[in-house]
Amino acid sequence: MIESKAKILSNTPLTQDVFKMELETEIATLAKPGQFVQITVPNFYLRRPISVSWVEGNVLTIVYKVLGKGTDKLSSMRPGHALSVLGPLGTGYPIEAKEEVLIVGGGVGTPPMLLTAKAYQDLGAKVHVVLGFNTKDEVFYQKEFEELGITPVICTMDGSMGVQGTVLDGIKANHITCPFVCSCGPLPMLRAIQNTYQDGYISLESRMGCGFGVCLGCVMKTVEGDAVRVCEDGPVFAMGKVVL
Amino acid sequence: MDLSVKLPGLNLKNPVLPASGCFGNGREFASIYDLSLLGGMVTKSVTPNARFGNPLPRIAEAESGMLNAIGLENKGVDYFREHELPFLEQFDTEVMVSVAGSTIEDYAHVVEHLKGVDVIKAFELNVSCPNVAVGGMAIGTNAEALGKTVAMVKQHADKPVYVKLSPNVTNIVELALAAQDNGADGLVMINTVQGLRMDLRTAKPLLGNVTGGLSGPAIKPIALRMVYQVAQVVHIPIIGCGGISNAEDILEFLYAGASAVQVGAANFIDPWACPKMIEELPSVLEKYNLNSVQEAIGKALPQK
Ligand SMILES: Cc1cc2nc3c(=O)[nH]c(=O)nc-3n(C[C@H](O)[C@H](O)[C@H](O)COP(=O)(O)OP(=O)(O)OC[C@H]3O[C@@H](n4cnc5c(N)ncnc54)[C@H](O)[C@@H]3O)c2cc1C
Ligand SMILES: Cc1cc2nc3c(=O)[nH]c(=O)nc-3n(C[C@H](O)[C@H](O)[C@H](O)COP(=O)(O)O)c2cc1C
């Protein structure tokens, strides 16, 4: 973990309320798929946790949705400004040799799956990608996955693009039988994934004070009843380990 | 520049200690800096048995600060003695163990079970946690219950006992005197200020525990006022705490009558906050023509 004054290189909208920001920081050289950073937004006290979406040299890309006041302020920041960024944080996806991997992203759970898909590809795995959104206007990152040579299955709840329904509907419709799944997305989606699959990993969200394991603000329970810190023991956990 | 301060049980090379609950039990911070840089440190509050703590969310943001309602999550005193305390032996820093409980007997149980552990230099009684249903703040906001608890713990403790006071009272001086009169060796002031935030979407309180404790720069003036009031009537030392994030803040607390300080939420915002403050402190003291930390302590108090 280091603290870095990261220069904003770009901050552009991908949809109406989802932004992609490129930051110049050495954290990029240290970050692994599924890890996150804690960003200080000017005029706000607590840092905001955001996943690492992509790294290239010393450029770290994050993709965030404007949810409240902090991310709204973040979306107004212009290139050239510096942000205090803490990272890399957390335990990411334990990228292990696999023949086949199914990557599932839902909404703003999609960004960390890009670097994860690349890491599995680099190990020679066949990578399937299924992405879920509410509607066509909210879809992003299709092109980025295509640049990796992967055609993502797009699912929308209203059927305005791709398969109508959830990511599970998209998996079925495309006859993807791969039993090993890596996923990040909203809680209802992760619950459905965890009820359907036994093998793989999911990435969780929780409100955090510190982001590096000391405040116990983000703690959840495992099926055995043990406490786990989403920030330090996670945010990536083995499928079925944490009670959702 | 002489930054050292001698307090009951604590031989501090500088007056900066990370506060309870904001430093874990040192492990995470030990991986980013040498804990021997610190004057001392305070462990996460420990209770007789393991506690899971409160339902999520446990954290909310506030203007210039944060609310927390962790609920004293810890693995209990036996685990703490066997698996957490030995790790701290390698550092040249003074360890205070924060003790919490639901009943007076709980406090006595914890100190009794930590007898003879050399790495512990003092106990800090957390009678001020606003985030548990029983005990905690209920003891710390009632002079009689507080007095009884301190007297009982003093019979069992083999190290000096500091009492961490709650700001959630009408008359802080009364509580400070109850602690002192029953044998407290020092005071720590203050714990978090009870607060609440709403979730506009659900039209319900945001925190799982409904209320939480406010900390950070927002509470600094409250803490300073209380230290200043209490320092004028007690003869035991005070460790100041509340919203400290830089060396100037430390000096304010010293002027108000604190002999050392604890740093809480600032550790989350900047994990290197404590070593940075220690490094800045000499030049800040110099700037105000002070030759030592000792010289600054109580400088603002009315002369008797
Ligand atoms: C490990 C991790 C990775 C994340 N990665 C991404 C990402 O890649 N892209 C993205 O868009 N979002 C991500 N999030 C969610 C993101 O942190 C929140 O949307 C953001 O903090 C909201 O801030 P705000 O000030 O706009 O909202 P407000 O509601 O005003 O925030 C108030 C406080 O609550 C916290 N908070 C609110 N919602 C969440 C939430 N869902 N999770 C955690 N803290 C929250 C904020 O950090 C802040 O401290 C991630 C969360 C975690 C825990
Ligand atoms: C997340 C969190 C957890 C805390 N846990 C404890 C605790 O276990 N015991 C205790 O005595 N105080 C606890 N505190 C209170 C702090 O030690 C400190 O008294 C308070 O936060 C005020 O200082 P600050 O403004 O510098 O944070 C906690 C505070 C926070 C923010």
Would you mind describing this structure in some detail?
- The complex is a heterodimer of chains A (244) and B (304).
- Chain A is an alpha/beta fold and 244 residues long.
- Chain A has six helices and 16 strands.
- Chain A folds into two domains: 2-89, Elongation Factor Tu (Ef-tu), domain 3; 100-238, Rossmann fold, CATH 3.40.50.80.
- In chain A, 19% of the residues lie in helices and 35% in strands.
- Chain A starts with a strand and ends in a 6-residue tail after the last strand.
- The relative contact order of chain A is 0.15.
- The mean pLDDT of chain A is 97.
- Chain B has one domain (5-50, 73-196, 214-296): TIM Barrel.
- Helix content of chain B is 31%, strand content 20%.
- Chain B contains eleven helices and 16 strands.
- Chain B has an eight-stranded parallel sheet with strand order 3-16-15-10-9-8-7-4. In chain B, strands 5-6-14-11 form a four-stranded antiparallel sheet, with no helix packed on it.
- In chain B, a hairpin with a 2-residue loop joins β5 (59-62) and β6.
- In chain B, α8 (247-256) packs across α10.
- The longest helix of chain B is centred in the last third of the chain and has 15 residues, at 273-287.
- The radius of gyration of chain B is 18 Å and the shape is globular.
- The interface between A and B is medium-sized, with 27 and 34 residues.
- The complex binds flavin-adenine dinucleotide and flavin mononucleotide (FMN).
- Flavin mononucleotide sits between chains B (19-22, 44-45, 68, 70, 72, 98, 126, 129, 164, 191-192, 215-216, 219, 241-244, 263-266) and A (209, 215, 217).
